[in-house]
Amino acid sequence: MAWLWLRESKPLWYGIVGSIVLILYGIIPTLQSFPSFGRVYAAYGGVFVILAVLWGWLVDKNAPDLYDWIGAAICIVGVSIMLRAPRLR
């Protein structure tokens, strides 16, 4: 919504609501208390990258190039390592 306010000339309240949502999106994860949350959140980041590439391709009609796919693959490999690696505890 903040994007719509900034780039599409939507009313100011779009920017305010969008900004509040973005702030909450950043704060809420810091309140998590289970021990592996950081790893799960990092994995979510990797999945987010893949979904962003797909969104740009399918919705915005912005075809990813070779480097987009390489970067997305690196993210998935990184996520797989983080989630599947044996842990020494």
From TrEMBL:
InterPro entries cross-referenced by the UniProt entry: UPF0060
Keywords: Cell membrane, Membrane, Transmembrane, Transmembrane helix
Record Pfam families: UPF0060
Residue ranges of the TM segments: 12-28, 40-60, 66-85
Superkingdom to which the source organism belongs: Bacteria
Keyword Transmembrane appears in the UniProt entry: yes
KW tRNA-binding (keyword) present: no
NCBIfam families: PRK02237.1
Cross-referenced PANTHER family: UPF0060 MEMBRANE PROTEIN YNFA (PTHR36116)
Protein name: Uncharacterized protein
Species: Paenibacillus allorhizosphaerae
Organismal lineage: Bacteria, Bacillati, Bacillota, Bacilli, Bacillales
